[in-house]
């Protein structure tokens, strides 16, 4: 052990007349410890909250949305084949987006409909893990009534359970002399999902592409392509690669761009919390500095004795620097 370390350790162990300085040193150390602990705990909890929110958002939505400017995608199979050749892409699936009025007995409300392909959607969306009852497989084309999967809150509003029948009323009907004739389609509830986000659970439903085309009046094609990537944090880079591969005339948006307002607000709030907690650590650090100043003032006689014994100015400074380092 060097001379400077030995003396600094001795100074940390106060004598009877120096217990006040030792007490301040202990308080300073505890202040730094509590400040750092608060910083780590709060930022860890906040980071976990942000990641949990991200997983809920992209669990029911794809990592990347691909749309064609000026209209629908008429040949989705060809586009999906091209997208899946881009490095980083895991899978892709077509979708149709629409809105309708859903009724069940005396209850009725608006619903956001998403027409999906059950065969490929399970490889892109994480909806299977959020199903309370039923599965996406029930949306496959079958005999009888078309199938629909509803959010838990929406099902509670309509007071329906799996196996019940509902009616979808779409405004995209034919134009007649009496005005637009709404399209009405009776469907059977074959599944209920819960994402944990009220916005989705209370307003969204999934149907297959054929039912969606009937309600939206589309003869062929889809509204867009949903894409899943291997690394969600690299979704923006993969989106840029897809846009470059498809060429002009395509809109390619990753989940960060789609939800940029939400995550920008969360990032700003996280920065504010980080600054506030840093101020706590700064106050504790200033306490250590004040303690060192008091120690230096109290040890003037010891410093004079050490200087007379041959200690250099640098050695004296290192003694108190080491003491502050041990406290920090």
From TrEMBL:
Pfam families: FtsX, MacB_PCD. It is a multi-pass membrane protein. Residues 25-243 form the MacB-like periplasmic core domain. It comes from the Bacteria. Keywords: Cell membrane, Membrane, Transmembrane, Transmembrane helix. Residues 279-323 form the ABC3 transporter permease C-terminal domain. The chain crosses the membrane at residues 20-46, 271-297, 304-322. It is found in: Cell membrane. GO terms for biological process: lipoprotein localization to outer membrane. One of its GO terms (cellular component) is plasma membrane protein complex. The keyword DNA repair does not apply. Its main location: membrane. Belongs to the ABC-4 integral membrane protein family. LolC/E subfamily. This is ABC transporter permease. It comes from Desulfolithobacter dissulfuricans. The lineage of its organism: Bacteria, Pseudomonadati, Thermodesulfobacteriota, Desulfobulbia, Desulfobulbales.
